Each structure stands twice: as structure tokens, then as C-alpha cells.
Fold:
Amino acid sequence: MKRLFGTTLAISALALVAGITAAYAYDEVEVKDGGKIIGQVKFVGNPPKFDPIKVNKNQDYCGNEVQVEALIVGKEGGVKFAVAYLENIDKGKAIVRNKPADVNQKKCIFAPHVFTMVKGTDLATTNSDPVLHNANMEMKKEVTDGDETGGIQMFNFGQPKQNQVYIKKVRKLGQVKLTCDSHTHMRSYGMVFDHPYSAVTDESGSFEIDNVPPGKYTLKMWHENWKTTGNDEDGRPLYGKPVVVAKEVVVTANGTAQVSFDLK
Amino acid sequence: MKRLLFVLAAALYCMGSAATSVWALTPGLPVKEIRFLIDVSSVDKAVAAGHAQVINKTDPKTKGGIWAIGQAKKLGVKLSGQTVVYDITAVESTQDIAGVEFPVWAFVPSNKVKGDKVEGYKNPHGPVPGPTIIANEGDLVRITMRNKSKNNHTIHIHGPTVIAYDHDGTMNVAQVPVKVDQEFTYEFVASPVGTHIYHCHVNANEHMDMGLYGSIIIHSKKNEKVDQDLLAILDEWDSKFSKEEGFSPTTADQKMSVEVGHPRNIARMNLFTINGNAWTDEYPTVVAAQQGQKIRVRFVNFGSWPHNIHLHGHTLHWVAWDGRNVYPYNNKITDNDMRSDSVSLLPGERKDYIFEANQDGRWVWHCHIVPHATNDGVYHGGLLMAVVYLHPKKDGKGPYGGVLDGSGIDLDAYPLGKPVKIGDKPSDAI
Structure:
């Protein structure tokens, strides 16, 4: 069957062995005795200090600078905004389709900075600010493509009115990047899967993926990277290619598997 | 970011065998795989694909076949002395249209069925349309249809006229529908020459919409010699009937007949395909041309909407309509032919065009009901192809060079025209 990300995205992510009865890339089934994967993404050593990013427009509302979100390390080394996801799963729990993934443009940053969603569901982008924003989303060819590699534009729409919401189905698999062309410091990253087994780490670096059918899986951790490689034409820092680490995990019936990842 | 439409130079491989991936190619961003039109130039193509078997005698297996042979003699259709055999299985499967996964019902070559699986398809594509039936005029054509899906099906032979009424495939007019694990053998004599179609005729509104169709091509030695003979089948899709919108046609509570193929629902089509592929920058549909070539493209409209497919920069000679030559065309294109730069096509129609590749560069060929050249309203997509010119290699070997030397992509082969500030000289000023 298919598989999601990696260097063979082009072929394997979309390849599908059709059955005489319909077989999708991911089949939603009732999960019996599902297990749980919990874990933490930790930064090893002393995290680097970052200069704030300069704001180039609407400073009266947005402020003159914003904090770097590329690497947010909590009290005990937990890293916020990393993504944990299963790579080899072709059937499992139902996809929640009636609730969109939300990204809010609030006080001139995208919130959340990192999100995950399932292909074929909606992304709702809101402008909560009284200033013009736009949401320009592109899909990278590989999940390891960084800021300096282009992608395919998924949409680009302006949101001049406060509280304006734009809802759009996302129908491609992979890593997406949201930017606001009005405020070039703004960034949000998304990971789009064909299954619901993914999570973004919280302030403590923790994640939880539940209702996993018992079995052996590859669990991957994705992080956008924080090592600067230069600055773009607006002075915003550019970072290296995203970091992807894979680990094997065994999920037992009604069990809890623990997996941790280190960043350094 | 460079959009593929303008990067297409990328792609170019092969000619002469436009529908087959003989040469490996690693296209760059954003192209993942080029989709060529279906090569229908000869029965050999169907044999090579493993879809057809040729028997060197007229070898009927049914009373209908014997009737058709008698009818051919009566009508003056000369038998070729050959029988072309196709073995097709009706299955349930899935198809990815521009990232939207649909459940489909499809006819597939039986040699792709392995146990309870269908193999050999990759998305985005899937098994729709079904295999192309290719024959020569006067061949006895035998199609055995095995039903391995949960619904009843038939095959209606649409276009060929030397056929017995009970091999016509209409439900309860010509035949009893074929149930699961049953089969039916259709035989007819290949005539008239041209582009025809086949499709399921059980609840045809629903079953055709689900994907049970394909084309029949009948060749003649009198046909004008062309360098490429290609097939483009148009269709529309409604994402309401996709997996992501919760459609599951095989569950007991799904009332198919008031959903798929209902008149109110065909007004909602939002995805559009050529040979089952909606244009995306990753999976573009391409006609790879060489200067001086004569290229025949046979259009079939299997959807419920009209289309008008406009080719930039070239003149199209309309040579056949529903498998019959269009006056005054008589197997050689001339300036007296019906000519146009667009292909207007109603549902069920087949129109064949020949154009001379007397240009250079990259050109688009798209539906001029322009919302059909989108994927769910996002331009560009859907009913869109690119005609891209290849040049011989500088060393004279192979068809790649100029654009692609076999090792990679030459993005500068056809540079884009560039605008300049108002009042400045043109960017390509002499």
C-alpha cells in the first residue's frame, strides 16, 4: 500500500493498489483495543538565544518586533511545535471531518505556529486583526524542504476585514507553509496526512496519539529547524532544512508506548 | 515558484510512443509524472499492453458472432480473417482526481486482476477509463466481460453497427444484466471505421458516472497516415461523491439511484479529467510533438456536460464525427476540410481531429468553458493539456535533445516572454 512521506513521496504517497472492492489510501475502520503513543521532544544542551524579528509594517498595531517561534524550549527542555506522526498506517480510527483546522492571524502572528490536518478536510484561516492580512499557502515537494525551496501554491487570498474567515479544503499531502505577504515576518507550518495519527507538541514538548490499532509502526518527529542560514530580502531569518527523525514503535492492545526524541 | 504550465519543457521524452513510458525521466519541481494521451495507433498497442490477443482466423464463439459475420457479408463489410479478443473484468476500485479520492466502478483488463486485487494502477489515475478496444476493419471482435463487483453490469457497444441486437448490452432490452461471478461474451464485426465507445447500460446514468466506460477504435488501411494517433476521453466528477465528503456507494444505506447520476447532481461537477487525469502541476497531461508531425487526436466526451477544447497556435482539421468521416475529408487533410482551433463536444460525441505540428515551443489546449480548466474552481487544472515540441538531439540520436538530453531538464529550452516597464523596449527587442 501507499505510504506517506519521505523521498518517495511522489510515487508511494499516492500509489494505491486498487482492490476489486474499493481500497483507499487510508481506510477508516472501527479500532478494537487501540493503544496509545505518548512521548516528548526535548532539546539537548543549552538552547540558543535569538534576536527578535523586525516587523516592517503596521508597527503601531503589530509592534516593532516579534519573538522567534522556530525553537521554543520549555522549562525542562521540552520543545513546542514539533510534529509526531505515524508513517505506516493504512487503516484506523475515523477522520474528524466536520471540524476544520484553525489558523488565526492574531496580533500579527499565525496561531498556531505549527498545525496538522488530514487531506480532504478544511483549513479555516481567520484574520482577528484590524489590519490587512493575506494567507499565502504553498505545498513543499518534500517534508524536508526548507524555506529556500519553493513549492506549489495552494491558495493566496487577502483578508482585509477583521474577523474574516476563509475556509478551504486541502487536498494534497505533505508539508505546507503559510505566509502573509503584508507582514513578511509571519509564518505557519502545517503537515497534511491521509490519516488522523499525528500530534503537535505542547509547551512541555509532550505529544499523545491515541486509538492506534495494535501493531508495529514507524513514528516520525518533524521539526522546522532553527539554525539560521541567512536572511531573506526583508531581513527575516532563514532556517535550515526541517529535521525528521524516525523511530520504531510497538503498540500493544490497550497499551501505552513511550517514545522520546532529542533535538540538538 | 515556477508553475508547471511554464516549466513543461521539463518533461520531454519520447515520441513515437507517446502513451508509453519507454524512457525513464526524473522531472524536477513540481512535476512528478507526465501523463500522455492514450496511444491507439494499432492493435499491436493493445497486444503489447497485454489487453488483447489476436487470432489469425475468424473464430466466432457465439450465435451473435455468427449473426454479425452474416450481416457483414450482407452489408459488404469485408472480413479481415482475424479475431481480436479482449477479456475485461468489472470491479470496484478507487481513483484520485486532483487529490480527491473517489470510489469508482471500472472495467479493467482481466490480466490486472490478481485474486481479490487489481494491480498495475497508480494514483492519481486509477482504472477509469477502461482499456481501449482496438481493432482493424472487418475483424471479429470478442469481448468477454466478467463481473467481480457487487452490482449488475453489461457492456453496450456504442458505435459499431455490425452487431446482433442481443450483444448490444442494454439492460432488459438486449440482455439480462450480468451478476457477480457471471460473465457475458460480446461479439461483433469491426465497422464502421473510427472512434467509438463502450459503457455499462445498467442504470446507465449511475454506472457511467461511476466510471464504467472505455473507447473502441477501428482502423482502416485507407486511414490517412499520421505520426501519432491519440485518444482523449473527457469526464466530470463531483467531489460530493468522494471519500472525503463521506460517500460510500457500497453500503446498504447509500441510496445510489437518487445520488450519483441524478439530474440535480450533474449540475455540481467541480473536477474535470482527460483520460482520468485532472491537470495538476505535478501530473500534467502532455502531447509531445515534433516539428513536421501529423497528429490525430480522437476526443470522446463521456461526461454530462458540453466542452470546447481550444488549442492555441494551431489549426485543427475536423476529420471524423461519431466514427464517420466529415465531408469533404476523404482520408487526406486539405484546406477544404472543416477547420477550427477548438473542439466542441457534446456528451457521447466523438470527434477526430488532425493537426500539423508546424509550430515550436509550448502551447496549451484547454476547455474554453474556462471553469472546466480548474480543479474545484482553482485555476489552472482540469481539462487542460500542453502541446510541447521536442527536437532531435544535436548529435542526431534520439528525440530528446534541445529540450531534454536524457539526463535532466532544460528549463531554458523555451524561456518565457518577459514584460518590461511601460515605454521600455520589448524584452526581446531586435
Remarks:
- The helical segments of chain A are 9-13, 59-62.
